[in-house]
TrEMBL record, chains A, B:
Gene3D superfamilies registered for this protein in UniProt: 6-phosphogluconate dehydrogenase C-terminal like domain (1.10.3660.10), NAD(P)-binding Rossmann-like Domain (3.40.50.720)
One Pfam family, short name: PDH_C
InterPro entries in the record: 6-PGluconate_DH-like_C_sf, NAD(P)-bd_dom_sf, PDH_C, PDH_N, Preph/Arog_dehydrog, Prephen_DH
PANTHER family xref list: PREPHENATE DEHYDROGENASE, PREPHENATE DEHYDROGENASE [NADP(+)]
PROSITE patterns found in the cross-reference section: PDH_ADH
Protein name listed in UniProt: prephenate dehydrogenase
Coiled coil: none
Organism of this sequence: Tepidicaulis marinus
Similarity comment: family membership: Belongs to the prephenate/arogenate dehydrogenase family.
Domain of life: Bacteria
Metabolic or biological pathway, per its Swiss-Prot or TrEMBL entry: Amino-acid biosynthesis; L-tyrosine biosynthesis; (4-hydroxyphenyl)pyruvate from prephenate (NAD(+) route): step 1/1
EC number of the protein: 1.3.1.12
Amino acid sequence: MSKSEPLFGRIALIGLGLIGGSIGHAVKRAGLAGHVAGFARSKETRARALEIGFIDSAHESAAEAAQDADLVILCVPVGALGPSAKEIEPALKKGAILTDVGSVKTAVVRDVGPYVPSGVHFIPGHPIAGTEESGPDAGFAELFDNRWCILTPVPGTEAEAIKALTAFWEGCGSNVDVMESKHHDLVFAIVSHLPHLIAYNIVGTATDLEKVTQSEVIKYAASGFRDFTRLAASDPTMWRDVFLNNREAVLEMLGRFSEDLAALQRAIRWGDGDMLFDLFTRTRAVRRSIIDAGQDTDAPNFGRNPTHAKSVSKK
Amino acid sequence: MSKSEPLFGRIALIGLGLIGGSIGHAVKRAGLAGHVAGFARSKETRARALEIGFIDSAHESAAEAAQDADLVILCVPVGALGPSAKEIEPALKKGAILTDVGSVKTAVVRDVGPYVPSGVHFIPGHPIAGTEESGPDAGFAELFDNRWCILTPVPGTEAEAIKALTAFWEGCGSNVDVMESKHHDLVFAIVSHLPHLIAYNIVGTATDLEKVTQSEVIKYAASGFRDFTRLAASDPTMWRDVFLNNREAVLEMLGRFSEDLAALQRAIRWGDGDMLFDLFTRTRAVRRSIIDAGQDTDAPNFGRNPTHAKSVSKK
Ligand SMILES: NC(=O)c1ccc[n+]([C@@H]2O[C@H](COP(=O)([O-])OP(=O)(O)OC[C@H]3O[C@@H](n4cnc5c(N)ncnc54)[C@H](OP(=O)(O)O)[C@@H]3O)[C@@H](O)[C@H]2O)c1
Ligand SMILES: NC(=O)c1ccc[n+]([C@@H]2O[C@H](COP(=O)([O-])OP(=O)(O)OC[C@H]3O[C@@H](n4cnc5c(N)ncnc54)[C@H](OP(=O)(O)O)[C@@H]3O)[C@@H](O)[C@H]2O)c1
């Protein structure tokens, strides 16, 4: 991608946190746009985004940022997507592509759909990349590199528009997948939403016991617990909105999880070591597949000093 | 600790995997022993341990390794501790210290206690350090650095023996805590055993669905799921033994977890965003405390390229 031929003349980022910021950085890195306009609720975020330099202009209203844009990307929490779309509706130009990065998709079609003017191409999207941090300082250009970005266009969406948005995400370093929004929500209920829910829950349980103090939990966290605290430190607003907007799929997966957990509980109570051993052997193989698929590294992260550890153990 | 004044003349390691191996490396690093004798079940492990060099002599029986040792450390799975103790009983010399590294402690007192000859000091122990790897190649000298090691001596244990074992673990880089075995088991049921159980369970659930394929789960694992797969890749034998031997405490904590999860499930079903937001805010603070306590780093690990990420976002 050469900097002299940007894919889009003007891109508008509505929301300038981790994801909006990372998109801005990635657009700059690859020269994907002639101009990046940005909007965030707070003055501080807008000023900081300009200072870091991942937007070219900051605007006091979302509509102003979206004005004349060829690509508008909504990068706000899922619950704020509908209101944001409503706000920019009058400003959207004919032929523009409107997309979002929300972690649920069926609710977005429901909430944003009504505000899409005819002639504007609305294509919901979800980059599968993130960190546990948020805000304009959290973003970086490499966030999307070799990660997936999922598009969930509604039937009838113009192929050219999907192609342009695909090229955009590829320019940001992603691989692009297309699927139905309902299937997306089911897949992410199990690979993302339920893991976060479980993590939030166990951190809540562990710090609300009578017989074990919170300081003991913190002191000995390295023995397993700490791995959940990272997920459980994710942004409260974003995650509240995810659970409120992907209710059915999350409840379905939670039902399965609880059923399986009840079976494990029985195995422990009855001392069924074979059942435990079989499950623990099966799950070990899953990790291997994830590493083989390039979705994680196999450096022994529990030690949290992986490079050193490896070199020492080879002595 | 100078290499010319070892704390113990002869140390015997019964079990030469991640923990036994790491102890061997740490003993060598600090010169804590005149001689390290090792035993493992398999010829391969014994040969590999000698080759790596974290033991000085390999023995075909545990009793032979323990013969004349001043300190004997049982580093085998919890279910093998009793049988190992029985085997070495006749070989233990008067005044020797016998300890273990098992992840549960009340069951160890029950299983090993009967085989402790009079005049031998039995002090159960548990180093709070590990990785998701196992076997003789997994160990490294730094594993215990700045981690805790918990001793759970039974009432009446000689203070001098506790002092010597404390000095040993400090020589390995650890900080030492003393607590009752029953309390230990409750604390680790929540900070370690339940997190592993939950991780095993969710990996099991996610890879056993009809509507979402295993390859989808693997492909999109980076969105949360992968963080559980590390814990769920831990050694099946070790963890089967942990759950079979800390049944009551694990079931108690699992009961609390399930109760809290049911409340979360209701909040999602009823759309109670405030309840979700409050919990997610509280759990975020817990992570902060864990980082402040030096039990984890705050590099944004979800991105899995933390150093680079940080430097880029500061540009
Ligand atoms: N974090 C992840 O791992 C991840 C991954 C994939 C997708 N997503 C999705 O990406 C979107 C943004 O997440 P993020 O991680 O970038 O969050 P973030 O870092 O917290 O940034 C959110 C941005 O949205 C703005 N905002 C928040 N509430 C708003 C409201 N009610 N109305 C208008 N603007 C509002 C914020 O403005 P101020 O700065 O002024 O507060 C901020 O600029 C969410 O829909 C999320 O589901 C996140
Ligand atoms: N891994 C952790 O994170 C961690 C942390 C703290 C405490 N611990 C505790 O440390 C102990 C050892 O764990 P590890 O991680 O070092 O395991 P590991 O790497 O799998 O090593 C286990 C060692 O014990 C031997 N062994 C296995 N089963 C045996 C049996 N039935 N009889 C005699 N020897 C047997 C193995 O012999 P072969 O090599 O010949 O198979 C191997 O040398 C366990 O009690 C565990 O609870 C583990």
